Amino acid sequence: MHVFVTGASGFIGSRVVKNLLRQGHQVTGLVRSEQAAAVLTARGAKAQRGTLENPQEWVSAIGQCDAVIHTAFDHDFSHFVANCEKDRQVIRAIGAILAGSDKPLIITSGTGMGDDDSGQPAREENFNPAHPNPRVASELAGNALLESGIDVRVVRLPQVHDTQRQGLISYYIPLAKEKGVAAYINEGQNCWSAAHVDDVAELYVKVLEKGARGKRYHAVAEEAIPSRQIAEVVATGLGIPARSLQPNQAEAHFGWFAIFANIDLRASGEWTRNQLNWQPTGPGLIEDLSRMDYTHVAH
Fold first, then answer.
1. By C-alpha distance, which of 66, 60, 63, 58 is closest to 2?
2. Residue by residue, what is the 3-state secondary structure of the chain?
3. Entry pTM
4. Could you report the per-residue pLDDT of 190-209, keeping only the tens digit for each?
5. For residue range 207-248, what is the model confidence (pLDDT) as tens digits?
6. Closest-CA residue to 109 (of 152, 79, 66)
7. CA–CA distance from 216 to each of 10, 142, 145, 163, 290 (Å)?
8. Cα-flanking dihedrals φ and ψ of residue 207, to 5°?
9. Paired residues of 156 in beta bridges
10. Were 221 and a residue from 34, 113, 179, 280 both cysteine, which residue would form a disulfide, CB within 3.0 to 4.6 Å?
């Protein structure tokens, strides 16, 4: 297939492109810069310049492709609500090009969208359209396209990691360095799910090749890693103490990150693994955090 990939030079998207090419697919990748375009071209893909802010400038290129994998997202979490709304508009723009076709569109969301408030891990079959997480906008946009007849599939992400980046934890680490303490709330028993970036990239390709219309897939290798364990390994890496805070101290300490600090983001990927024979093999989150180089962490 000829696959259009947004975020083709990004943390996840670049690896998706690599896997697609390895599997014999053609790729056109959306990139922001000439430098990124040159790297993509050197790998054997075609580069399409464009930004998420102006999807109308590049969506027409999708018409020449057989499928779309949408991994791009603006990860400035200090403007999280606005960026989720931007993602909604991009998905709508892509959908306008795919209307009337049977071309699959794989969009990206978060595992939190599968949380049904039961206290159990988030699961693929769950979706609450009234979920308070702003990222719900992406799945609502996908649902609207699905109802219009488009083949929409969803990959929900946990904390995606290697030794360079670890999802939201990448923002937690410099904050811990700045504050001089790796903090967690209460006993730090709220848990986060995770998967290595190479395993996640492999899943996107499996969803393309073997996934089904309307289904949601969880890129979860590790279901529940306690926030205290994350704080302790970061504390060791930075040479600072790990310390418990009370919930009423969270906003003053964490700033915008406070909305994530005490949230429970445990999620299951069992159904996804069974459906697609996806078998994650990469290092775990704690292993990557323990192996990363903390000497270059910026304040």
1. 66
2. CEEEEECCCCCCHHHHHHHHHHCCCEEEEEECCHHHHHHHHHCCCEEEECCCCCHHHCHHHHHHCCEEEECCCCCCHHHHHHHHHHHHHHHHHHHHHHCCCCCEEEEEEEHHHHCCCCCCCECCCCCCCCCCCCCHHHHHHHHHHHHCCCEEEEEEECEEECCCCECCHHHHHHHHHHHCCEEEECCCCCEEEEEEHHHHHHHHHHHHHHCCCCCEEECCCEEEEEHHHHHHHHHHHHCCCEEEECHHHHHHHHHHHHHHHCCCECECCHHHHHHHCCCCCCCCHHHHHHHCCHHHCCC
3. 0.95
4. 999 999 999 999 999 999 99
5. 999 999 999 999 999 999 999 999 999 999 999 999 999 999
6. 152
7. 22, 11, 14, 27, 31
8. -65, -40
9. 109, 218
10. 280
Tokens describing residue 161: 């990691």
> Whole-angstrom Cα distance, residue 142 to residue 82?
17
Q: CA-CA distance, 264 to 292, in Å (whole number)?
A: 24
Predicted confidence (pLDDT) per residue in 265-292, tens digit:
999 999 999 999 999 999 999 999 999 9
pLDDT < 70: residue spans in the chain: 299
Classify residue 100 as left (phi > 0), alpha (psi -120 to 50) or beta. left
Which pLDDT does position 121 carry in this prediction? 96
Tokens standing for 232? 């302790």
Residue with tokens 């704080």: 231
The neighbour count for residue 263, using CB atoms within 10 Å, is 16
Place of tokens 């364990």: 229
